[in-house]
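Lecture 7, part B: from sequences to assemblies.

Below are the input chains for today's worked example.
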Amino acid sequence: MATIHVDIVSAEGEIFSGEASMVFAPAVMGEIGIAPRHAPLLTTLKPGEVRVQTPAGEEQFFYVSGGAIEIQPHVVTVLADTALRARDLDEAAALSAKQRAEEALRNRGDVIDSAKAQAELVRATAQLKMLDKLRKIKQ
Amino acid sequence: MPGIKEIRIKIASFKSTQKITKAMKMVAASKMRRAQERMSATRPYSEKIRRVIGHLRHANPDFKHPFLVERPAKSVGFIIISTDRGLCGGLNVNLFKTTLAAIRDWQKQGVDVSVCLIGAKAVNFFRRLSNVKTLATVTHLGDRPHVADLIGTVKVMLDLYREGKLDRLFVVNNVLVNTMTQKPTVRQLLPVAGEESEDNKLQKLWDYIYEPSAAELLDGVLMRYIESQVYQGAVENVACEMAARMVAMQSATDNAGKLIEELQLIYNKARQASITKEISEIVGGAAAV
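Predicted structure of the full complex, as structure tokens:
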């Protein structure tokens, strides 16, 4: 019986890798069933279940919270998301990242002050050390 | 010569410092092992997604995604991944040196440079530079960074790239060569560099069936690809941080040991001198009587 290789991976680890006789996945346009020698297909996944039928006739279930699936005649690659994705959520995350950057810039003033103070401290200690050395030489 | 008591106090303080550095070293060692495991766990995803991208480059969609198209560089962006905490030797300093060299190179060509910062150390360092614009920051990812924490910062850069305000995007992070050596590296993220896939069997003229549309799909996949690259960089940087801290703390412990030894010698000498002095005083006193 013909089989197809299946890799299910997420960014934080490998989930499944092995041969299958049939794979079912929740694509955005509806559930798809993939048999060996399927035509090349690229689509995104909705949150749902990926079912893998092994050649031995067993069925394995994997939950994915979305992602993408790539189908080549002999390989199926499921790129599962670990994070919940939605346009609004991504937008909010981007916005807060920008705000953090602006805040860091706004605090620049007192950082310069503290840097200045630090530089002065270093200079003062160096001067003290120099004086100490001079005193020793005189003795 | 300083008093005996002062030396004794100094020795005690060095000993407690040594205990702290030793404990930090052991903590770093165990964290490093876990970080390395996480590092290898991210590998399958980035390998697979690279394979998909490789296939994509061979496919012939009637639509060219901006992430795959090279433009003349007028402004470039750097995503700089540093640590949140110090006490890890020259790890961050080396990283910033490499980054600055790369930034200077671009600036010499009259190219605008802006950065996206990950980690408190980078934020502290780059806010002192006035000719580099900071676009986004994220700090305190902890020892176990999550993809979800990075999405926002990466999106800021990708959006700018899409709008044509950035023409190149690089990621800078430390690469773990082994426990003793961490190498700062600059890698190009965008446009996605052409990596020749080994599948020459793939016919030259074919295309995917795209559901729903090529534009939307490519965008999703490429975005995830970039995110996974940045995520991998972040995870690897944590492993580097732990390795560097382990080495730094080991040498600090050794140095404290050496100092204690030296001080102990001085202390013994001082103690002996004071005893000798006392005896000679007693003997002198007895002779006088």
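Note for the exam: Residues 58 and 200 of chain B are 10 Å apart (CA to CA). Keep this in mind when comparing with the next example.
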